[in-house]
Amino acid sequence: MIKFNNIYKKLNNREILSGVDFLINTGEVIAIVGQSGAGKSVTLKHMVRLMSPDRGSIEIDGEQIDNLSNSEIRNKRSKIGVLFQSSALIQWLSVYENVALPLHQRTSKTENEIYKIVSERLKWVDLFESKDLYPSELSGGMQKRVGLARATILNPKIILYDEPTSGLDPVTSRKIDKLIMKLNNEMQLTSVIITHDLISALSISSKIMMLHDGKIIEFCNPNDFIKSNHPVVQKFVNSQKIL
After folding, report:
1. Residue 41 falls in which region: left (phi positive, over 0), alpha (psi -120 to 50) or beta
2. CA torsion, ordered 148, 153, 159, 161, to nearest 10 deg
3. Are residues 2 and 59 in the same domain?
4. Do 132 and 227 fall into the same domain?
5. Same domain, 37 and 62
6. Which pLDDT tens digit goes with each residue over 187-209?
């Protein structure tokens, strides 16, 4: 469960979030859409306290995170996986080493235990045979899948996606969508996805939230979203090719 209670945030004297208030229930898949600068990434950063609000409070699984100590927030973050837009892979580490890294850093598991866990997760994303390759040897879609394997390796309760299909062709984008749904269902995750890809948002989310000028202007199921009468939502929907 993720709850924002009347969140305000200014950056460089510009109000980025203005009274943002929402509840994401456990197990939901929420897509956050909006134009660049609407506040999407800032919202995501607040969920892992990479930013703190100027006003308001944030709860994760019923616990207010605003005043947690550094050690407490590190523990909370270990239960939240993040897939960055760039995949954020370490270029001099192999696929296997990238995925294993959180297990080495945050657990006391043996090498045999780590090998078993990483191998299983790489099989989930269909990359076990590529475990010895390096990021520079991978396609964009493969890099996203490695990032997804690493983001889920500690079995998080929540996973945050920053533009998971950005820079990918339509066929590869739909493969990533299916993989997100597979992991969400099998791991019983709560997922929050920042995206400009409306086709992706419509196909995998239980609800779509649209931010505009730091405010939520729509938060509803996909069918209601595309029928919204809000002019900004209509413009966004009409600007994309929906088959």
Report:
1. alpha
2. -20
3. yes
4. no
5. yes
6. 889 999 999 889 999 999 999 99
**Both structure tokens of 72:** 């407490």
Q: How many domains does the chain have?
A: 2
Residues 73 and 18 in one domain: yes
User: Are 164 and 65 contained in the same domain?
Assistant: yes
Q: If you search the block for the tokens 């394997």, which residue do you land on?
A: 149
Whether residue 100 sits in one domain with residue 74 = no
**Per the structure block, which two tokens stand in for 155?**
């079995």
Which strands sit side by side in the sheet containing 14-24, from one edge to the other? 14-24, 2-11, 55-60, 63-64
Q: What's the pLDDT tens digit per position in 13-53?
A: 899 999 999 999 999 999 999 988 788 999 999 999 999 99
Give the pair of three-digit tokens for residue 213.
């000028």
What is the DSSP secondary structure assignment for residue 225, as one 8-state letter? H
CB of 147 within 8 A of CB of 84?
A: yes
Q: Can you give the residue range of the structural domain that contains 114?
A: 88-155
